[in-house]
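User: Reviewer 2 asked us to show a designed sequence for the structure in our supplementary figure. I'm pasting the structure tokens here. Could you produce the per-position amino acids so we can include them in the response letter?
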């Protein structure tokens, strides 16, 4: 039935509003960034009765009511009323409906059809395959992470080490003796926290935790943007997991998906019978790759919804960063579309001006409210200034995934070492653009699925060479400028690609080679955290200098990582062949004695043990443009890191290098 627009004003005795005129102004102008405090289901008290206040945006509906067990899922009994201000918000208070009740909205469309929709602002949902929302609150949890929150700015600033362990909650570890069930949030707060602390990662990044009906989407097809998935427990248990990570000194990043959403009947698609959240034109509103729907970034209310969602996780869950998925698909109107399948912008170009504006506003708002967090873009093109401030014309992200490095590096490592001499540019080219953005080096879940195989399986050669190549890959990654991200399983040398229905193959740790990979990652994390040269200027040219990138014949590269003090400099040599190279001469910037501080061929990592033990003395032999050089042994398929132990450390850090 239709309801007069003035009913809520005349019937104020049966309902009440949480909105001020200023709230409505902000919402309609796309500047309300705390909508989760207003829209949705909020336990409340009115006229001495406890109940719930409901508010939902459905501007094109003829009628809206609340469904649940409390009315035998019958529409029309618990009505909501449209506001008189043309905001499109329906609201109402209903006594006796308390936290824990499941509910949906019954929405009558303009043509008389009835839709049953989950609450877009629900804080909790039924466990899939059930799809109803649950009345809940985000209060009631006592946080104990104040020490972390106070120090967070120092923990993830531009010059801070940031080594991220990417985790899928449902498959990190299973319990086979209990039907192969996944761990709960609280169980993860013990096992995952201990493991991440032991292996030395500074942050955990969770694949999307927001509620998603299809488990096989890994969380990238979201229907409940404000609800952590109930598969692993209630919202406060997820808070407990984050709190426990923080107390252990570990940051938390969430994968966030503002690029698209699925077409499930209970979700956002055609929410009030019209294309409310998505574009009506499928050339702009339908995603051909994922068969999902694209947000209408030009609609003010949709911008408020998305930016409010970003702030919600930072506010209520103390999250330290958001990794934004599929940014490239947002930036280009012709992304994955053939000619004639997309609509140019008003200037005739392919850039999505509305999405660009949204991303800038998102970053400005996030950093304006939480300057000590980090936003990270998964952006796979050469779009300029992704991680540059908006006032300089950038998109405003804190960091960007270095997809070019990932593709070139994995391509290079697939070559048999005998052929690598002809592909030297694949391993050196990344430095040409390494400082154009604040880059994160990703070896993510996308690289170990869909038949690509595990990282280990992509390494050439027999078993020993595959593990040596993997150790070399990780050593090269951790010595390359930029922050780091490694998907779970990589740190134990998992031999098969990831499958979301299975636990990681923890049984592999009974074998020495896999133990060696885990030990290597632990030591690399330790060195990355404790050696200023590896992180202080990880986004700036002054933190890196080539010594020799042209030894193609031997497939060897040499480079330096720098901080402020000369004795902090680390010189890195990578030998990408299985040949041991004795008496390999290398120029160094200072005379004296140098010491090997890391060698990926170390027996503790199950390497062959070709080490440079003791101290290496320089000789007054000019080499690589240096006045002094030294001779060392290069182990097979390995990386060696050297530091000046004692001697003349008076050389200057070249600020222009």
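Assistant: Here is a per-position design you can include in the supplement:
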């Amino acid at each position: 039935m239709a309801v007069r627009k003035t009913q809520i004003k005349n019937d104020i005795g049966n309902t009440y509003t949480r909105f001020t005129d200023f709230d409505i102004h902000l919402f309609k102008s796309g500047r309300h960034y705390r909508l989760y405090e207003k829209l949705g289901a909020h336990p409340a008290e009115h006229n001495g009765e406890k109940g719930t206040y409901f508010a939902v945006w459905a501007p094109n509906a003829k009628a809206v009511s609340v469904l649940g067990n409390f009315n035998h899922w019958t529409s029309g009994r618990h009505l909501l009323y449209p506001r008189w201000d043309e905001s499109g918000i329906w609201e109402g208070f209903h006594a006796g409906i308390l936290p824990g009740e499941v509910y949906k909205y019954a929405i009558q469309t303009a043509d008389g059809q009835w839709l049953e929709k989950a609450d877009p602002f629900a804080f909790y949902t039924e466990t899939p395959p059930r799809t109803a929302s649950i009345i809940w609150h985000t209060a009631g949890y006592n946080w104990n992470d104040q020490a972390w929150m106070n120090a967070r700015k120092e923990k993830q600033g531009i010059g801070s080490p940031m080594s991220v362990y990417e985790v899928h909650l449902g498959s990190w570890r299973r319990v086979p003796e209990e039907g192969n069930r996944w761990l709960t949030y609280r169980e993860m707060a013990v096992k995952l926290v201990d493991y991440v602390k032991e292996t030395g990662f500074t942050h955990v990044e969770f694949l999307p935790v927001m509620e998603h009906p299809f488990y096989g989407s890994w969380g990238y097809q979201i229907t409940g943007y404000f609800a952590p998935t109930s598969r692993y427990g209630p919202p406060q248990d997820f808070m407990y997991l984050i709190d426990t990570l923080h107390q252990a000194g570990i940051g938390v990043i969430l994968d966030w998906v503002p690029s698209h959403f699925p077409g499930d009947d209970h979700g956002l698609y055609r929410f009030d019978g019209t294309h409310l959240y998505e574009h009506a034109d499928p050339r702009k509103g339908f995603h051909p790759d994922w068969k999902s729907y694209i947000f209408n970034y030009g609609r003010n209310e949709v911008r408020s919804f998305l930016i409010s969602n970003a702030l919600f996780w930072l506010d209520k869950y103390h999250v330290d960063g958001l990794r934004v998925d599929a940014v490239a698909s947002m930036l280009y109107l012709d992304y994955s579309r053939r000619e004639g399948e997309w609509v140019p912008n008003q200037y005739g170009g392919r850039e999505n001006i509305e999405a660009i504006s949204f991303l800038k506003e998102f970053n400005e708002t996030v950093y304006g409210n939480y300057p000590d967090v980090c936003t990270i873009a998964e952006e796979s093109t050469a779009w300029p200034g992704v991680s540059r401030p908006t006032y300089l014309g950038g998109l405003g992200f804190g960091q960007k995934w270095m997809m070019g490095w990932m593709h070139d590096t994995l391509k290079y490592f697939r070559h048999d070492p005998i052929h690598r001499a002809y592909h030297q540019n694949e391993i050196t080219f990344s430095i040409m653009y390494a400082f154009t953005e604040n880059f994160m080096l990703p070896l993510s879940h996308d690289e170990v699925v869909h038949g690509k195989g595990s990282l280990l399986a992509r390494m050439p050669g027999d078993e020993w060479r595959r593990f040596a190549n993997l150790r070399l890959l990780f050593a090269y990654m951790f010595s390359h400028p930029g922050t780091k991200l490694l998907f779970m399983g990589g740190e134990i040398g998992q031999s098969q690609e990831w499958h979301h229905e299975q636990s990681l193959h923890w049984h592999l740790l009974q074998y020495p080679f896999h133990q060696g990979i885990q030990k290597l990652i632990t030591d690399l994390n330790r060195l990355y955290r404790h050696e200023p040269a590896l992180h202080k200027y990880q986004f700036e040219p002054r933190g890196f200098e080539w010594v020799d990138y042209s030894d193609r014949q031997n497939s060897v590269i040499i480079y330096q990582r720098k901080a402020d003090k000369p004795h902090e400099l680390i010189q890195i040599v990578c030998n990408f062949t299985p040949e041991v190279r004795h008496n390999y001469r290398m120029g160094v910037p200072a005379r004296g004695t140098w010491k090997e501080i890391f060698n990926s061929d170390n027996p503790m990592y199950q390497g062959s043990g070709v080490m440079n033990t003791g101290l290496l003395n320089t000789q007054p032999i000019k080499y690589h443009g240096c006045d002094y050089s030294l001779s060392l042994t290069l182990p097979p398929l390995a990386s060696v890191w050297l530091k000046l132990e004692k001697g003349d450390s008076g050389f200057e850090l070249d600020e222009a290098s």
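For the response letter, you might also mention the following. The radius of gyration is 28 Å. The chain has three domains: 7-134, 168-257+306-341+374-534, 541-647.
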